[in-house]
């Protein structure tokens, strides 16, 4: 069952990439997808029940909206800092708590933090994530560090856990 | 009309790519440069891809460029993460005027 989920995903991806229903492409796609699913099926889908829960996809759409908005904000933020003659940066590495457990949720969290304004995730060890922050806010440091993580953590917990 | 929209989106993408490159030159150390490079170049490249999709529509080329967007969004931050961590472990120091370094205590 776990392998068939990966098979369906890779086969759809193949069909979209070739974008034709010519018989030779479809047969090649079936063979390649079967091979991929057979070799790597155990690595990707840990719990296949989660794949069929509609609520997770709705939360994922909401996550996409927030992510794209943050990504746009981040780009204008970087453009402002780079083009400003005085280079207004106060960089440093800060630390925040993570409560997500599954690997994929932690990966997506680190990627989201990298794409949000002014932050770049450097490492995750156990319960802490280390974030390089381009412009540290001096007052309420711990609270504002935690805000970076919390913005995505609640949504990702609903999607992946 | 759609052509003009596509060309505008591609131009915005190229502009963000340019900001990323300026950041790569102006910012002081590896970690700050990675910030500029990752954010701007990711959105810039995604913009170019999306512009190509708008220009060509739902055919083989457009769908391929649309599929590239999630791949770039997944791989580019991961590469930045790996580079930053690798640079720190290798011993590249933070900029002199950095405020703090809480990662040092962890090692």
Can you offer a commentary on this structure?
- The complex is a heterodimer of chains A (161) and B (107).
- In chain A, 63% of the residues lie in helices and 12% in strands.
- Chain A is elongated and about 60 Å long.
- Chain A has helices spanning 2-18, 23-44, 54-83, 103-115, 141-160; strands spanning 92-97, 119-125, 128-133.
- Chain A has a 3-stranded antiparallel β-sheet, with helices on one face.
- Chain B is mainly α.
- Chain B has 3 helices and no strands.
- In chain B, helix 1 (2-26) packs antiparallel against helix 2 (30-56).
- Chain B starts with a helix and ends in a 17-residue tail after the last helix.
- The mean pLDDT of chain B is 86.
- Chains A and B meet through helix 1, helix 3, strand 1, helix 4 and strand 2 of A and helix 1, helix 2 and helix 3 of B.
Supply the helix-strand structural class of chain B: mainly alpha
Q: What Rg of chain A is obtained from the alpha carbons, in whole angstroms?
A: 20 Å
Number of helices of chain A: 5
- Helical element count of chain B? 3
Sheet with most strands of chain B = none
Shape of chain A: elongated
Strand content of chain B: under 5%
pLDDT < 50 runs, ≥5 residues of chain A? none
Keywords:
heterodimer, A: 161 residues, mainly alpha, 2 domains, 3-stranded antiparallel β-sheet, 3 strands, B: 107 residues, 3 helices
């Amino acid at each position: 069952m776990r392998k068939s989920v990966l098979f369906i995903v890779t086969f759809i991806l193949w069909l979209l990439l070739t974008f034709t229903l010519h018989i030779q492409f479809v047969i090649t796609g079936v063979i390649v997808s079967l091979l991929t699913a057979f070799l790597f099926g155990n690595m990707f889908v840990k719990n296949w029940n989660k794949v069929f829960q509609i609520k997770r996809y709705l939360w994922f759409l909401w996550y996409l909206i927030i992510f794209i908005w943050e990504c746009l904000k981040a780009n204008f933020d970087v453009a402002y800092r780079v083009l400003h003659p005085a280079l207004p940066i106060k960089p440093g590495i800060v630390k925040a708590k993570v409560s997500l457990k599954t690997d994929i949720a932690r990966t997506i969290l680190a990627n989201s933090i990298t794409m949000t304004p002014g932050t770049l995730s450097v490492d995750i060890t156990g319960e802490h994530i280390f974030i390089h922050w381009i412009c540290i806010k001096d007052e309420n440091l711990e609270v504002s560090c935690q805000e970076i993580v919390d913005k995505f953590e609640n949504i990702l917990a609903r999607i992946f856990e | 009309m759609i052509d003009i929209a596509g060309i505008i989106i591609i131009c915005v993408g190229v502009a963000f790519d340019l900001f990323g490159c300026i950041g790569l030159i102006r910012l002081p150390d590896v970690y700050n440069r990675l910030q500029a490079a990752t954010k701007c170049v990711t959105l810039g490249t995604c913009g170019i891809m999306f512009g190509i999709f708008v220009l060509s529509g739902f055919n083989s080329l457009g769908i391929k460029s649309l599929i590239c967007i999630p791949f770039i969004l997944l791989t580019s931050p991961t590469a930045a993460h790996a580079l930053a961590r690798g640079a720190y472990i290798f011993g590249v120091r933070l900029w002199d005027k950095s405020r703090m370094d809480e990662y040092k205590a962890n090692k």
